[in-house]
Specification:
Length: 341
C-alpha cells in the first residue's frame, strides 16, 4: 500500500500571493520614485490629457467638444475645442464661406490659452473692423501632422466648408512629418501617389485609451515623458528617408495642395515657420506657380522673446506678433466675394 503525502496547497497559494503583492508594491514604489525624479529633474513638454484621437482617414484629429488644462515647464494653458473638433468658440451656425487656417501645433496654438492663438487674434481684429460682415474663421490646425492632412482635408471638406480663402501654416518639421506619416509617396515618374499605408497612429491610441480611463493618470509627468519620447520618435528625429527625399515628397504635396486651391479658385496664403534660407526659395517658387504669397514668420533667432525657450513654440506675444504680420494679407483674402454653391 503506497503512502500518499498531501501537498500544502494553502501555503503555496499564500506564498504566490505574497510574491505578487511584493511585486506590485515594488512596481508602485518604482513608479512613485520615477514620478518624483521626473518632476524634479526632467522638463516635460506635455503633461495633461491628449488633445487628439485616432482618425482612419487623417491619422488623428482633435477631439470634439473637449477642454483640458495642459501643464508644461514654461506654461500652463487652457485648451478647448468646439463641436466641430476645432480650436475656437462654438459657431452659431455652420462656418461656411470663411477663412480656413490649416497647420500644425503652431496654428492650433500649443502653448497659449484659448483665444490667444493667432487665428483667434485675427478673428477678433476682423470683427472690430468688419462687424457683422466678418467671415467665419476656422482653425483646423492640429499638432504633429504633415501636409498630407491638408490635402485630404481639402479634398474631403472643401464642398462642405466652401472657404473663401485658406491660410497654410507651413513649418520646417513638415518635411520629416510627411515622410513619417507615409500617407503619400512620389513614384518613379515623379508623381504624387497615395501610399495605401494605414496611418501610424492606431497602436498608440490603445495606450491613450488605457491612460485616460484611469483618473488623474494623464497628469503624470512620467506618462508625459513617455508620450514625449513616442512623439519625438514619430517625428523628425526618426524620419526613415533622407532629407532630399523628404523635400521631394513635401514639395510634391504642396504643389498638389496649391493646384487644388487654384482649380477651385480658392485664394491662399502660406505662413512659413522656421523654414530656413536654403529651403525658402523653393517654397516661394512652388507657391508662386499658383499665385500664392509666402509670409515669413518671425525667427526664434531674431525674436527669441516671442518663443518659449525650452518648448520652442510661440508664446502669447508671438501669436499676437504673427497675427499683426498676417492681418493685412488676411483682410485682403476676407474681402473676396462669397463663393456660390
Amino acid at each position: 500500500m503506497t503512502e500518499q503525502t498531501a501537498a500544502p496547497q494553502p501555503r503555496k497559494r499564500s506564498g504566490a500571493l505574497a510574491t505578487a503583492l511584493l511585486f506590485l508594491a515594488s512596481l508602485l514604489a518604482t513608479v512613485i520614485v520615477g514620478e518624483v525624479v521626473v518632476r524634479l529633474a526632467v522638463p516635460v513638454r506635455n503633461v495633461g490629457p491628449t488633445f487628439s484621437e485616432y482618425d482612419p482617414a487623417y491619422g488623428k484629429r482633435l477631439k470634439k467638444s473637449f477642454s483640458c488644462t495642459r501643464v508644461a515647464a514654461e506654461f500652463t494653458m487652457q485648451f478647448s475645442t468646439n463641436s466641430l473638433g476645432f480650436r475656437g468658440p462654438e459657431p452659431a451656425s455652420f462656418p461656411s464661406d470663411g477663412i480656413l487656417f490649416l497647420g500644425d501645433s503652431f496654428t492650433s496654438g500649443y502653448g497659449v490659452n484659448d483665444g490667444e492663438e493667432y487665428p483667434a487674434v485675427i478673428r477678433r481684429t476682423l470683427e472690430e473692423r468688419l462687424g457683422d460682415a466678418t467671415p467665419p474663421v476656422v482653425n483646423a490646425g492640429t499638432g504633429n501632422i504633415g501636409n498630407g492632412y491638408w490635402l485630404r482635408f481639402l479634398e474631403a471638406e472643401k464642398e462642405r466648408f466652401k472657404p473663401r480663402a485658406v491660410v497654410f501654416g507651413f513649418c520646417v518639421n513638415d518635411f520629416a512629418d510627411n515622410a513619417v506619416e507615409g500617407m503619400y509617396l512620389v513614384d518613379g515618374e515623379g508623381k504624387l501617389r497615395t501610399s495605401g499605408a494605414p496611418p501610424p497612429q492606431e497602436g498608440a491610441r490603445t495606450a491613450q485609451a488605457i491612460i485616460e480611463a484611469i483618473p488623474g493618470l494623464s497628469y503624470s509627468h512620467l506618462v508625459g515623458l513617455a508620450r514625449q519620447f513616442f512623439s519625438e520618435g514619430m517625428g523628425s528625429g526618426s524620419a526613415p528617408q533622407g532629407s532630399a527625399v523628404n523635400d521631394t515628397l513635401t514639395y510634391a504635396l504642396l504643389d498638389s495642395i496649391f493646384s487644388l486651391c487654384e482649380a477651385f479658385s480658392l485664394p491662399a496664403l502660406v505662413l512659413a515657420i522656421e523654414v530656413g534660407k536654403e529651403r525658402l526659395p523653393l517654397l516661394r517658387e512652388v507657391a508662386g506657380r499658383h499665385g500664392i504669397d509666402v509670409v515669413i514668420a518671425p525667427s526664434k533667432w531674431d525674436h527669441p522673446e516671442l518663443y518659449y525657450h525650452v518648448d520652442g513654440h510661440w508664446n502669447a506675444a508671438g501669436h499676437a506678433y504673427v497675427a499683426r504680420v498676417l492681418q493685412p494679407f488676411v483682410e485682403r483674402l476676407a474681402a473676396g466675394k462669397p463663393k456660390k454653391g
